[in-house]
Design a protein that fits this description.
Blueprint lengths: L9 H24 L5 H18 L6 H37 L5 H26 L2 H16 L9 H21 L5 H24 L5 H40 L7 H16 L2 H13 L3
Helix pairs in contact: 1-2, 1-5, 1-7, 2-3, 2-7, 3-4, 3-5, 4-8, 6-7, 6-10, 7-8, 8-9, 8-10
C-alpha cells in the first residue's frame, strides 16, 4: 500500500469508481449505435466493467438498486453480445479463409457474408432498442444509483474494503476453476469470474492509484489473461461449430465441402491452444491474491 490513496474514504473511492464507469458507458454509446469500427466491442466492455464494479462493491451500496441496474444492463449487454459475436465470427472466417488460400465463393458467402448480413440486422435491432422507454429507464436508474452513492460505512478508510473485495474476487475465480468439468458452461463461469476480477482491479487502479499497486496490477493482468484465453477458446469453438453446421448445409445444397474440414480443425486446434495458457495464469493469480494485506 502506498501514497495518499490509502487515506481515501469508501465514499470518495466509490464516487470516482462509479462515476467513471457510468460515464464511460454513456460516452461509448453513440459510436456503438453508429456502428463505428470496434465501437460495439468497446461499449460492451464498458457495460461489463460497470456491472463488475457494481457487483464487486455492492455490499457498500444499496443492494436492491445495484441488482436492478445490473439486471437492466445485463440485458443490454446480451444484445450487444449478439451483434459482437456475429462481427467476430465474420472476421475470423475471413482471416481463416485467407490464411488457407481458399477462394471458394460459396464458402465465403456462407461463412463471411452471411454473418455480416446477420450483424447488420442485429445492429438495426440494437438501434431500435436504444430508443425505447426501457432504455431511458435504464439510464435513469444508473444515474440515480451513482448519485445515491455509498450507504454503508461511507467515511471508513477504503483500503481494507479494497483488499477484501479483491481477495473475494480472486477466490471466486479459483472456485470456478475448481468446478471445471470440461464443459463450456464451466469455462464460461471461469471467464465471467476472471472478467470481474480484472475490471474491479482496474477500477481500483483508477480510483485509488497506488493502493496495493503491485497486487492490483498483477490481478488485473491475470484477470485479463484468463478472460482473453477463455474468450478466445469460446470464440474458436463457436466458429468451429458454425463451420460444421454450414458444411452440412453446403453439402445438402450440392456445393463443394472439401475445404470445410481443414477450417474446422484449425479452429478447434486454436481453442485447445487457448486452454493451455490457463495453468500459468492461475499460478500468478494465487501469488498475487495471497499477498493482499
Amino acid at each position: 500500500m502506498s501514497n495518499g490513496s490509502a487515506s481515501l474514504t469508501t465514499r470518495e473511492f466509490l464516487d470516482v469508481a462509479l462515476r467513471t464507469a457510468a460515464e464511460e458507458v454513456q460516452e461509448t454509446t453513440p459510436a456503438a449505435l453508429a456502428d463505428e469500427p470496434d465501437a460495439v466491442h468497446q461499449h460492451r466492455v464498458r457495460v461489463r466493467r460497470l456491472r463488475s464494479v457494481l457487483a464487486g462493491f455492492r455490499d457498500s451500496l444499496d443492494r436492491e438498486a445495484v441488482e436492478d441496474v445490473r439486471a437492466r444492463y445485463r440485458q443490454w449487454g446480451r444484445e450487444l453480445g449478439e451483434v459482437r459475436d456475429m462481427e467476430v465470427r465474420a472476421e475470423v472466417a475471413e482471416q481463416e479463409l485467407a490464411a488457407a488460400g481458399i477462394e471458394d465463393p460459396n464458402m465465403f458467402r456462407r461463412l463471411v457474408e452471411g454473418d455480416r448480413a446477420a450483424h447488420a440486422r442485429a445492429h438495426a435491432r440494437l438501434i431500435a432498442l436504444a430508443a425505447t422507454p426501457e432504455a431511458d429507464e435504464r439510464r435513469r436508474a444508473l444515474v440515480a444509483l451513482v448519485e445515491a452513492s455509498v450507504i454503508r460505512d461511507p467515511d471508513a478508510p477504503v483500503a481494507p474494503l479494497v483488499a477484501a473485495v479483491l481477495a473475494a474476487q480472486a477466490r471466486r475465480v479459483r472456485k470456478a476453476v475448481g468446478r471445471i468439468d470440461g464443459g463450456e458452461e464451466s469455462y464460461h463461469d471461469v471467464r465471467k469470474a476472471a472478467r470481474r476480477l480484472r475490471y474491479v482491479a482496474e477500477a481500483v487502479a483508477r480510483a485509488a492509484p497506488g493502493l496495493y499497486l503491485a497486487q492490483v496490477v498483477e490481478l488485473a493482468t491475470v484477470g485479463d489473461a484468463l478472460h482473453d484465453s477463455l474468450g478466445g477458446h469460446r470464440d474458436a469453438l463457436l466458429f468451429a461449430d458454425h463451420v460444421a453446421r454450414e458444411r452440412v448445409l453446403a453439402q445438402r445444397a450440392g456445393e463443394s465441402v472439401e475445404a470445410y474440414p481443414a477450417i474446422e480443425a484449425s479452429a478447434r486446434a486454436a481453442a485447445a491452444g487457448k486452454l493451455a495458457e490457463l495453468p500459468h495464469a492461475l499460478h500468478r493469480l494465487h501469488a498475487a491474491a495471497s499477498d493482499l494485506r
